[in-house]
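Sample intake sheet
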Amino acid sequence: MDIEKTYREWLNSPSLQEDEKKSLLAMDQEEKEDAFFQEAPFGTGGMRGKLGIGLNRLNRFTVGKAAYGFGLFLKHRSEDACEKGVAISHDNRRHSREFALLCSSILNDLGIRSYLFDSLRPVPELSFAVRELRCAGGIMITASHNPKEYNGFKAYDETGCQLTPDSIAPLLKILSDLGDPLTLKKEKVDAKGKQTIIGKELDDLYCEKVKAIQCHPELDKKGFKIIYSPQHGASYENAMRIFSDLGYEIIPVKEQCVHDPDFGATKSPNPEIPEAWELSLEYARKHHADLAVMTDPDGDRCGLAYLDSDGSYKRLTGNQSGALLIDYILASRKEKGTLPRNGVIYDTIVTSTQGREVASSYGVKTESFLTGFKYIGSRIDYYEKLGNGPTFLFGYEESYGCLISPFVRDKDGVQAILLYTEMALYHKRRGKNLGQAYEELQERLGYHDTATMSVYFEGLSGHTKMQELMESLRQAPLSEIDGTPIEETRDYLSDETRKADGSILKIEGLPSSDVVQYVLKDRSTVTVRPSGTEPKMKFYVEAVAEKKEGLQGKVDSIWADLKKKLALPY
């Protein structure tokens, strides 16, 4: 792409407003290259990027093109798409409401009905709305837990699930054929679609469904205190209502309950980052709370911190909390005689193997998918239509994303924090905190430690470096990491597993993806993949040991050796 030529075309376009042109003129060379070296990529996770003017930015042109292309896609996909319509929601970010209204208007001009929430709502409620209203699809304007400079566009199918690679391919072709978003010519139909505003009635239905997932609603909640933060985001109203209705003593982090697009009262809106917890833990210490829970801004992810026996608050990772919750759900079902013989747990290839071991101990199978909850949602739908598939019991990712009941087909942070809270209460009534419960789980099934590291590669040069790094992993595969031989190298792009003895096996049942995974002789794993939504590479490290002592420092040692071998900048 000719960056300078495209920049000039945008700068001289009569479609730009004066403030937009001023933003372009204020760019230095590096900013210009980053804003115009590519069009904001639309992948299987939708589109996410920095707000601003430019081809590689989220603005009224790029979002408008995404909405228009999605509308054409739905009309080609279904004869009754116009009548069935599209549900639209958004989070608290800058321009989110503006983009949601823009999407609604563009779809209406195409003759497609739109169902627009009256204000911000979380991802899981958008998924629920698509299903409940029997829409042809859904749009969520959000950048999830990214910094305030970002926004995004997520596309959902008629099942309330994000589009998978197979289903999204025609949409990507349409978007490619539409050309530059700045000069896009949009067709309009004579019979415009109607815009319908969604209000409290969907909230009522969604909240009742969430309340029904409890395993032990009879537990005595007296004296059990919870701190809750929505990180300025869209889950605040639903979460507070559900917890209050169920009799929990819940204390909101009031500074973070304001729908602030600048995330003014938090150092990070991401529950995975320690800084995100500072104010919540201040509240926890002040109120001597038993548990602190948190949802991210669009309400699909969550995290928790529990009161330990030494009086401090400790956090569980997504892998740890997920494995512990699997144990709680399956034990509760077994106790009540409702554990099905054909139960199944869904996770991803970068999720810890610990959850699979927990499920196996109850005779429950696990299916693993590529990163992205869309694969889990799609699998639920596949078996539902098949009619005689396994019974869904739980789905999760290592990045604090869970689903307990499939009336939603995406991660549901409110479902997750409700059951995490109930689990903590259950163990407290038996004299244990979550740390002690997790230690017992490891004593029973083995010790695991995991960490996820991100290395950022900004701009055109960074994009090239990521491609070169992934290519080098394939052309010159590692034979050992931190002194431990590699037993298997799984290349999900070529769909091949190469064994240490040189034999090659085919990876079945998964679409191709730019991921390389190493399985070490001691069952530890290292997985490398470029992010589909941000300019970074993610490294997932899992260390496994039979005894606790053998685990100490193992993840750090593996990561240090990996950084050295790959000459990573961090």
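Comment: The first strand starts at residue 42 and ends at 43. The mean pLDDT is 95.
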